[in-house]
Amino acid sequence: MNTTTATSDNMLFCDYYKQWISVYKEGAIRTVTMKKYDMAYQWLVKLIPELAIGNMDRIAYQKLLNDYAAEHERQTTMDFHHHLKCAILDAVDEGLIPRDPTRKAIIKGKQPRDKKPKFLNQYELHKLLDDLNLSQDINMDWLILLIAKTGMRFSEALALTPKDFDLSRQVLSVSKTWDYKGNGGFALTKNQSSVRKIPLDWQTIIQFAGLIKDLPEDKPIFVGNKKIYNSTVNDLLARHCKRAGIPIISVHGLRHTHASLLLFAGVSVASVARRLGHSNISTTQKTYIHIIQELESKDIDIIMRSLSNLS
Questions:
Q1: Distance CA 116, CA 149 (A)
Q2: 52: closest CA among 84, 82, 97, 3?
Q3: Which domain holds residue 259?
Q4: Fewer Cβ atoms within 10 A, N terminus or C terminus of the chain?
Q5: Per the structure, how many domains does the chain have?
Q6: Domain's final residue, options 53, 75, 93
Q7: Where is the signal peptide (predicted)?
Q8: Does 38 share its domain with 139?
Q9: What pLDDT does 88 receive?
Q10: How confident is the model at residue 116 (pLDDT cuts 50, 70, 90)?
């Protein structure tokens, strides 16, 4: 590494950021997260290829965010800001940037596109499951069913092996993921909280007991010789939704559906967080705030009725 260049005020900011990624992030974060930092670097090369690190002030930074926001939604711009901020604060600590240029940054962005529905209600989920082709052999429809029943992430479901099913205790062990975005193979879970055991209903246990009984113990049950794409399963799910006459959702929407139904059924946020493998309960609260607020409104009615009975 050229330490003279690294400490020079004339060093390009995009070069500093690339070096910072290499030193602080490479090998310390998941591949999918690393790709987001690499993408942020590509945008720096595109938007501020000639900006020296010593010239990164509040105006230059705000202009960078504004130029990025012209082509992205506000949330994506916020993510871009977060991917840059840590590197910039380190540069401030090193004396390469005089003052924090990210202070009071204003996040803008294009109007968000119409989003697909994130989840189905219970009636719609029943219609979807009725349309599945649950054959005697493992297929992608079984994957759709299992994600709907467990709330697993797509990568977690792809990594399941027969050994992960504890049929006698009716639990499913999640301890790894499948690298479907890369070259395949087992990979680490998103975080330590993602390593968990998910209780299964007896019907699902009986169904999968028959499906996996003759399969190799350590081989993923949903992955064959061909590479599996998230888009392929999303297309299959979309066809089922159309036939069932229900809103089209994504595979990740099945995870949201699972969590939403549990919350509406009265399951605590803490239990839902553990089942989903969230690192903390605030993630669950933030993701499902609209449902929690709706349930709180119902709770107020219950509270008022209970209190009125005391008089």
A1: 21
A2: 97
A3: 122-297
A4: C
A5: 2
A6: 93
A7: none
A8: no
A9: 97
A10: low
